[in-house]
Specification:
homotetramer, 305 residues, alpha/beta, Rossmann fold, N-(1-d-carboxylethyl)-l-norvaline Dehydrogenase, domain 2, six-stranded parallel sheet, globular, branched-chain amino acid catabolism (chains A, B, C, D), NAD (chains A, B, C, D), oxidoreductase (chains A, B, C, D), NADP binding (chains A, B, C, D), HIBADH-like_NADP-bd (chains A, B, C, D)
C-alpha cells in the first residue's frame, strides 16, 4: 500500500498505453488515488495491478475526480473525449483541473482549453518527452501550456511522473514547443544518417566519425545516444534491427502536426517539411513500424546503414 | 624567448590568416622554430612579432624545414602551393612531413597526398574545428586523414595548437569527416532557426523554447551555444547583429564541398543539399558576410529573428 | 435584354470578386436569371449593371433559386456560407443544385457535400482554372467533383462561363484535382526560375534558353506563356514588374491546401512541400502580392530575374 | 552506295553507342565519308555495315578528317580523348572542326574548347535531345555552344542527323542549356509523380487527372507524353514496367552535372538538388536501371504507381 500524499488529489487517468500506464502507476506510487480507464481491458487490468481503481468508462472514471489526466494517440481522440454532448467537459464540475499529456495539434489543444475555460475548468496541455523508459522511471519532461496557477496546482502530480517541467506559455504552447523540438529532432536524425552514409561511402568508419561528431559542432542526441548506424551505440535501436524506440510513423505524425502548425501561420519550415517527406518515404519503403532512426536505411540504401 | 622543445621540428608555416596566424604563434610558444609566409605583408609582420621567422616566399620558407604546415582558403590554393612544376612538392626532400589544415575537397587532398607519396613525403589532411577563438587559445580539434606513423610524428605539433585529435582514416579522410560534421551543423542551425521562428509565430518566447530544447532530444550546439535568435544567448553572434562567428559564405563553401563529395559517390544527402540552398538564398538576400546563424532571418522574415 | 435560355435556371450567385463577377455576368448574357450577393457594395453594383438582380443578403439571394453558385476565398467562407444554423443549406429546398467554384480544402468540400446530401441537395465542387482573363472571356476550365447527374444538370450553366469541363469523381474530387494541378504548376514555375537563373549566371541569354526549353522536354506553361524572367514574354507578368497574374500568396494558399491533402493520407510530396516553402520565403522577402512567377527573384537574387 | 554530298566533309566519328551509332549511319546516308571508331568491336562492325569505314583506333580515325565528332558517356572520356600528350588535339591540323555531342560538364567542354582554340581547331559543344528514337530517325535537337562560324560550317552535318539547332552562346553554353532543360525535366517528372500519387490516394483515376492536367497550367512532357503512371499512356515506359526510355541513372548523372554547374557559380537550385536526391533514392531502392519516370514508385510506394 502506497503512502498517502499530503495534498493528495483524486486523479482520473484516461489512456493507459505504453506511456499512460506507467505514468498512472507512478501517480499511485506517490500516494494519489487514481481511477483509470482504457478501452483495452488488458491495459486496464495492468493498471489495477499497479494499484489504480479500474473504471468501466471514462465518464465513470472522472466521477468525483479533482484532476483529470489523459494520454491519447491523436487530436481526434482528445477532442472526442472532452468535447461535444457526450464529452467529459459537459460533466466536470467547475474547479476541476484537466491535464492532457497527448501530443496533438495546438489548435485542438486550444479548442479543448477554450471549452474548458467556458465551464470554469482549468486546462493544461502537457505533452512529454522521455519515451517509455522515462515514463517507467518517472523521469519524463513535461512541456506545458496553460495558466501559471493551473501549473502550480499540477506540479506535485507532474513531479510524481517526471523530473523536468517547462512552462512555455498559454493554451497550446506546450504542444507548439513539443512539435518544434520534434521537428528539429526529426531533421537532426535524418541529416546525421546522411552524414554517416556519406562518410561510410568514402570509406570512413561510422564509429570513428560518430565519436568525432559527438564532441564537435555537429553533435546531437542522434550522434551521442540514438545513433542511427548499426553497431555504433550498442544500446540504440539501430543496433537491434531498429526495434523499439520511437517509431517512424510516430515521428511522421509529429512532423505532420508541425507542418499543420506552420500552415496555420504561413511559416517557412523547408527542412522540417523535407524531413516529413523522408519519413513518409521510409514508411512507403516498409519501415513505418521501426524506430525513426531507420531513416538511415533510406539514405544509405540496403548495403549501408 | 620561448623554450626549445625537446624534439623540436623546423616548421614552415604557409598561410597566416585569422586561423593560421594564431596557430603559428602557438607553435612558436611551444618552442618550435617556425619560418612563416603569407602573401599579406601585415599578416607576415604579425607572425614575426609573435616570434616566427618571416620568409619572402613559400619556397624560401620551406628551405631546411622538416615539417611544412599550410592553412589556406580553398582547394585551388592548396593545389597551387604543392603541385606542378613550381609547387613545393617538387622541392621538398624525402622524409619531410606535410600537414595541410585547410578545409578543402577530399579529392584535392588525395591528389596532393598521392603526389607527396610519390616523392617520399608524408602528408596529413588535418582540417580543424574550434574557430578563431580555438586557434588563439590553442584548443582546436584536428580531424585527420593519413598514415598513422605520420600522425604520430605530428602529434607534438598538433598538441601545441589544439586539444583533441581524431584520426579518421587514410588520405582525405580528415576532409570527408570535417565536411560530414559541417553538413550536419549547417542543417542543424537552419532547422533550429525554423523551429524558433515557428514557435515565435505561435507566440512562444524563443528563450523559453531554446531552454527547453537545449535539454531535450532536439538539443544541439545551435540551441546551446550559437543560438540563432537574437538575445537568447548574449555571447552568440545573433546577439550582436550576426557579426563575427563563422560566415554564411564559409558554410556555403563547406556545404558545396560536401555536395561535391556526395556527387562523387552518388550519395543521397537531401537535407544537406537543401541546406546549401538555404545558405545560398541567405547570401542572395545580402547576408553572405554575416554569421551563418543569420539564416534565422531567411526563415523568420524581417519581422522575426 | 438578354435572350431567355430554353431551360433557364434561376441562379443565385454568391461572391462577385475578380472571378465571380465576370462569371455571373456571363450567366446573365446566356439568358439566365441571376440573383447575386457580395459583401462589397461596389461588387454588387457592378453585377447589377451587368444585368444581375442585387440581393441584400445571401439568404435573400437564394430565395426561389433552383441553383446556387458560390465563388469565395477560402474553406472557412464556404463552410460559413452553407453550414450551421444560419447557413444556406438549412434553407434550401430539396432538389436545389449547389455549385461551389471556390478553391478550398477537399475535406471542406466533402463536409458541405455531405450536409447537402442529407437535405436532398445536390452539390458539385467545381474549382476553375483560367484566371480572371478566362472568367471574363467565358473560357474557364471547370474541374468537377460530384454526382454525374448533378453535373449533367450543371453543364448548360458551366457552358455559359467556360469551355472545358473535367469530371474527376465524387465529392471533393474536383478540389483534389485542382490542387494536384496547382502543386505541379507551383513546382514547375519555381524550377523554371532556377533553370533560367542558372543559365543566366553562366552567361546564357534567358530568351534563347527559354526558346529552346519551350520546344524540348523541359517545356511547360512557365516557359511558353508565363515565363518568369523579365522580358522573355512581353505579355507575361514578369515583364511588367510581376504585377497582375496569379498572386504569390494565392499559390502559397493552394500549396498549403495540397500539403493538407497530403497530410490527410500520409502522401509523400517532397517537391510540392519544398515549393510551398519557396513561396513562403518569397512572401517573407516582400513579394507576397506580386505574381507567383516573382519566385524568380528569390532564386536569382536582386541582380537577376 | 550513298550519293556524295556537294560539300562533303571527311568526318571522323568517335563513340558508336546507342546514340552515336545511328548518328554516324545518318551521316553516311547523307553522303559523307565517315571513318568511325569505338572500343566495342560489335559497335564498330555495325557502323561498318551501315557504310562507315572502321578504324582501329581514334587516332587512326581522325587521319585525314576535316571534322571530328564524338559521342561519349562522360566528361572524363571526352577529356581523355582530346587532351593530354596522347590526345587527339595534339594531332589535329589547324582548321579542323570538332563537334562533341556528349552531355558533359560545361567546365570540361570549356577546357577542351580552350585547348582546341590554342591549336587553331574550332570546337562546338553540341549535346542533343531526342533520345535513341530521335538518333535513329534523324530528328535530334542540337543544343550548341561555340563560335557562330563553326556552327555555320557544322549545319549541313547536323541537318543530316537532326531537325532543330539552337545556338546558346560560346564554349560550354550548349552543355549549360542542356543541363538547365534536363534539371527542369527531372523536377517536372518527379512532381508529376507526386501529383498523380496524391490524386490516386484520394481516389482519383490517374488517367482522368492526367487528361485534365495535360491541357491545364500543370501540363508538361511528363503529363502528355512520358506519363509516369502505368497505363495512362500505353506507349510510355511506365506502361511496360519502366523499361527503355531515359534511365534513372542517366537523369541522376545529368542532375549531378547541373548541381556542379550551380556550385561553380554559387547558384540556388533547391528543387533541382532535391530532385537529384529523389533519383538517388530511387537508385538506392533498386530502380537505377529503369526509366527515370520510375521515380513514380518512390513517391507512390509499392501499392501505387
Amino acid at each position: 500500500m502506497a503512502p498517502h500524499a499530503a495534498s493528495a488529489e483524486r486523479v482520473a487517468f484516461i489512456g493507459l498505453g505504453h506511456m499512460g500506464g506507467p505514468m498512472a502507476a507512478n501517480l499511485v506510487k506517490a500516494g494519489h488515488v487514481v481511477t483509470a480507464f482504457d478501452l483495452s481491458e488488458a491495459a486496464l487490468a495492468k493498471a489495477a495491478e499497479a494499484g489504480a481503481i479500474a473504471a468501466p468508462s471514462a465518464l465513470a472514471a472522472v466521477e468525483g475526480a479533482s484532476v483529470v489526466m489523459s494520454m491519447l494517440p491523436a487530436s481526434r481522440h482528445v477532442e472526442a473525449l472532452y468535447l461535444g454532448e457526450g464529452g467529459l467537459l459537459a460533466r466536470l464540475p467547475a474547479g476541476t483541473l484537466v491535464i492532457d499529456c497527448s501530443t496533438i495539434a495546438p489548435a485542438s489543444a486550444q479548442r479543448v482549453a477554450e471549452a474548458a475555460a467556458a465551464r470554469g475548468v482549468a486546462m493544461l496541455d502537457a505533452p512529454v518527452s522521455g519515451g517509455t523508459a522515462g515514463a517507467a522511471a518517472g523521469t519524463l519532461t513535461f512541456i506545458v501550456g496553460g495558466e501559471p496557477s493551473a501549473l502550480d496546482r499540477a506540479r506535485p502530480l507532474l513531479a510524481a511522473m517526471g523530473r523536468h517541467v517547462f512552462h512555455l506559455g498559454g493554451a497550446g504552447a506546450g504542444q507548439v514547443a513539443k512539435l518544434c523540438n520534434n521537428m528539429a529532432l526529426g531533421v537532426i536524425m535524418a541529416v546525421t544518417g546522411e552524414a554517416l552514409a556519406l562518410g561510410a561511402s568514402h570509406g570512413l568508419d561510422p564509429r570513428a566519425l560518430s565519436a568525432m561528431m559527438a564532441v564537435s559542432t555537429g553533435r546531437s542526441w542522434a550522434t551521442e545516444v540514438c545513433n542511427p548506424w548499426p553497431g555504433v551505440k550498442p544500446e540504440a535501436p539501430a543496433s537491434r534491427g531498429y526495434a523499439g524506440g520511437f517509431g517512424n510513423d510516430l515521428m511522421l505524425k509529429d512532423l505532420g502536426l508541425a507542418i499543420e502548425a506552420a500552415l496555420q501561420v504561413g511559416a517557412a519550415v523547408p527542412l522540417g517539411e523535407l524531413a516529413r517527406n523522408l519519413y513518409a518515404l521510409n514508411r512507403l519503403a516498409g519501415r513505418g513500424g521501426l524506430d525513426f532512426s531507420s531513416v538511415q536505411q533510406l539514405v544509405a540504401g540496403p548495403a549501408g546503414g
